[in-house]
Design brief:
CATH topology of the largest domain: Immunoglobulin-like
Shape: elongated
Bound molecules: calcium ion
CATH superfamily of the largest domain: Immunoglobulins
CATH class of the largest domain: Mainly Beta
Number of helices: 4
Number of strands: 11
Radius of gyration: 23 Å
CATH architecture of the largest domain: Sandwich
Order of helices and strands: HHEEEEEEEEEEEHH
Structural class: alpha+beta
Strand order of the largest sheet: 1-2-5-9-7
Number of domains: 2
Length: 214
């Protein structure tokens, strides 16, 4: 069945928009200041492993901030003997939207930890997709602690790959002119929430595109 009359009304808009060309997306360096922190920890018999990292990435100029972000892990030695040759390993296997930043490695060696002392290390982690992601850090004895971060969906990022580009426009275009209930209706592209994907929604999508690509 054809799309309803809403579609007909927007045939002209479709034609007009077909003349619109996306700019090439530019690689703008990501990374801004500020992050809110949380900490978690699991007690071993006499050793405490804890993580400090952001609970949520902010969105600044329609980009994740800060990205990459930093996670710090600490190993506290409450025993009466020195911990020698320990290491901590970051596990992102359960967090498909996160990856190690360029040059980063999963396992970091620690200096020897005297009784009562704490050693820490940090990783640079890159968010690559929106979602709620849980990661963990483990020492070689099996002591593990985990933390989570929320990576918000960017405005206009209809394919949820962390950018606003031609691919997102293609998704928007396929929904343009549809109404709620149509098979090609995309609720996420209905920025004004009126149940129709119209030129007004396009203007809002384009604002997102311009913000991301400025
Ligand atoms: Ca995208
Ligand atoms: Ca709308």
């Amino acid at each position: 069945m054809a799309k309803n009359k809403c579609t007909t009304f927007f045939l002209l808009i479709l034609f007009t928009l077909s003349l619109w060309g996306c700019h090439s997306s530019s690689n703008i360096p990501w990374g801004y200041a500020s992050q809110s922190n949380t900490s978690g920890g699991v007690s071993g018999a006499d050793t405490i492993l804890s993580i400090v990292g952001p609970v949520k990435l902010d969105v600044v100029n329609n980009k994740w901030s800060s990205n990459p972000f930093t996670v710090i892990a600490s190993l506290q030695n409450n025993t009466d003997s020195t911990i020698i040759g320990s290491s901590l390993t970051l596990d992102l296997s359960a967090a498909s939207g996160l990856g190690l930043d360029t040059g980063e490695v999963a396992t970091h060696d620690l200096s020897d930890i005297l009784p009562g002392e704490t050693e820490q290390t940090s990783w640079s982690i890159l968010a690559v997709a929106p979602g709620f992601w849980t990661y963990s850090v483990q020492d070689e004895t099996g002591l593990t602690t985990e933390s989570s971060i929320t990576v918000p969906i960017l405005c206009g990022d209809l394919d949820h790959d962390g950018d606003v580009d031609e691919d997102d426009y293609t998704i928007f275009e396929s929904a343009l002119g549809t109404c709620s209930g149509d098979s090609e209706f995309n609720e996420e592209a209905d920025y004004d929430g009126d149940g129709k994907i119209t030129y007004d929604d396009y203007v809002k999508w384009n604002d997102c595109y311009e913000a991301y690509n400025q």
